Amino acid sequence: MTDTPTQTVESIITVTPGALLRRRLFGHYGLLFGLAILVLVAAAALFAPLLTDQSPYAQDLSARMKPPFWMAGSDPSHLLGTDQLGRDYLARLLYGARISLLIGTVTALISGVIGTALGVAAGYFGGKVDLAATFLINVRLALPVVLVSLAIVALFGGSLQIVILVLGFLLWDRFAIVMRSSVMQIRGLEYVNAAKAIGCSKTRIVLSEIMPNVINNLIVVMTLEMAHAILLEAALSFLGLGVQPPTPSWGLMISEGKEMMLFQPWLITIPGIALFLLVLAINLLGDGLRDVTAPEAKG
């Protein structure tokens, strides 16, 4: 027996927004894959003391350059082997995940606050505010991030705090550009004009009418910049101007293992694969969140 048009309409109406959101979330395999990897990395970083009893700083020259468990001559007490100073590679990998996640998250938050505030102000107010914001964006775009980071870190010294602050104050331009463009597209729409007509303040209009409609763009940019910050930190650490030893950092681990990569390639392969998977997971998660929160996907 076939459904009547009335039954079909009723079946569509009874689907709640929450059910539609869950259907979109669980139907996006890229988002689920990225979320699974990111949760796994975050859990490994958080519960690192429970996953290994080794210290990432303890040196044992008598156990240096032990291979990982799948190679001959491995040591059961060091599943992923040891480095040139006899430090446990699994412990350094787990604690290094904390450094990467911390730098990526805090950098994205700092740059997101700066760029979002500047972009929203430029897009909503226009005029001289937009001219001033555009000038600042152009100045920032004229500064190469890597070279400026290298210069500042070389001048003030490499440390975790310096790297976070430098990257946070250099990676806000994409936030500003995207938010400026997004706000300009919706500032003249009916619901914004209606809010103005009933006397809503500019702050209320921005927070309640504009920001909810550009949040999906903000999510995408934040995930991109988080991954960008993690890669930049790894590059700075690889060059010896980022996180300083003996602090565990994936970029620093790659740098320390590059001299032995022809003889012990796992020294750079293990942190390299971890870095690749983390950045891939963040990008897939951001892309998936953008798909499921886009206005056209809510119909």
Helix % is over 70%
The low-confidence parts are 9-13
N-to-C CA distance = 28 Å
Mean pLDDT, as a whole number?
86
Name of the CATH first level:
Mainly Alpha
Highlighted features:
single chain; 299 residues; mainly alpha; MetI-like fold
Any chance you could write out the topology, listing elements then pairs?
Blueprint: H1 5-13, H2 17-27, H3 29-46, H4 48-51, H5 89-125, H6 127-141, H7 145-156, H8 160-168, H9 173-186, H10 190-197, H11 202-238, H12 250-257, H13 266-293
Helix pairs in contact: 3-5, 3-13, 5-6, 5-8, 5-9, 5-11, 7-8, 9-11, 10-11, 11-12, 11-13, 12-13
Would you mind describing this structure in some detail?
It is built from 13 helices and no strands. With about 300 residues, the protein is mainly alpha-helical. Helix content is about 70%, strand content about 0%. α3 packs across α5, α5 runs antiparallel to α6 (about 125-140) and α11 (about 200-240) packs antiparallel against α13. The chain has a single domain, classed as MetI-like fold. The model is unreliable at about 10-15 (pLDDT under 50). The chain is elongated and about 75 Å long.
Give a short summary of the structure.
This protein is 70% helix and 0% strand. With 299 residues, the protein is mostly helical.
